[in-house]
Amino acid sequence: MNKRFYFRFFFILLVLFLFFATFYSLPYYVSKPGMAKELEPIIEVENGYEEEGSFMLTTIRMGKANIYSYLLAKVSDYQEIYPLDAVRAEEETEEEYNVRQLHLMATSKLAAIEVAYKKAGIPIDYKFNGVYVLNVVEGMPADGKLVAGDHIFKIDGKEFKSSEEFINYVSDKSAGDEITLTYKRDDKEGEAIIKVEPFPDDKTRVGVGIGLVDDKELIVDPSVEINSEEIGGPSAGFMFSLEIYNQLVEEDLTRGYQIAGTGTIEPAGIIGRIGGIEQKIVAADKAGAEIFFAPNEEGAADSNYKAAIKTAKDIGTKMKIVPVDTFDEAIDYLENLEPKKK
Hints:
Elements: H1 2-23, E1 25-38, E2 43-45, E3 54-66, H2 67-75, E4 80-83, H3 84-87, H4 94-119, E5 125-136, E6 151-155, H5 163-171, E7 178-185, E8 188-195, E9 197-199, E10 202-207, E11 210-219, E12 224-226, H6 237-248, E13 258-261, E14 264-265, E15 271-272, H7 277-286, E16 291-295, H8 304-315, E17 320-324, H9 327-335
């Protein structure tokens, strides 16, 4: 009887521990290798050219740590643990972090389109649609009236032509003045009447207390659609630009290879550093990539490229790691690549 009692007691304790370990959040994030995903089904240039090989974006999986995932990351290769302040900005909520990541992705799409179309010699027009709220400063006038993700498109009933114009309009107000912001939230239009107040850390400046990013649209012909779903962050920008350009030009730059990579992209074509390069190498290798583009950062001692080379050696992959600093460098490499033998 005692043995049964102790067995049941132990079993109940175990169930409670597993439940607690799964649902109790720790002040950390855990990242692990994600996936390498072909871009041709994601990106569609109107009447674009087809390719024999493929370009692939690489991802990492990032999530709040619970006891179970924290302990697993401690004993697993290529899983990393980060404190909250290494991932989220100071006082940034989880919702604001997710909104920021999605808007960083949106910005990277625009830069990728701009780089690819300019390289192909195709004109681009711009249309400004307002600004998105990235975060709301606690204790400032917008707190409780606006939330991350709100799309502001009018101020005092007037449209504005840039985020700079929006900021200047608010900055010209005096403390205590009221402004009316017209916004959309979940496809519903609303208005917020907000007083302008000095910033706590700089009494010489006034505002409502929001971080923002442009809602800018590029108008191109042929048109292009990028369906990135819920993938966030800017690290796919460079690979987006390669896929878009490859559909714009007749020559197939994949040369029949499976080509993965990562890196931010600026409108000037500069490829930037990203986080989690080691985990992305693992993801690309598992997906069968033969070539991997890694940001070279002009040969910096701690560059993404050097970390990628080390990881590739550690896991014994045959994947070729190629350093790149600019979009033009990547195109030059691909144009001189021998076609894959069938």
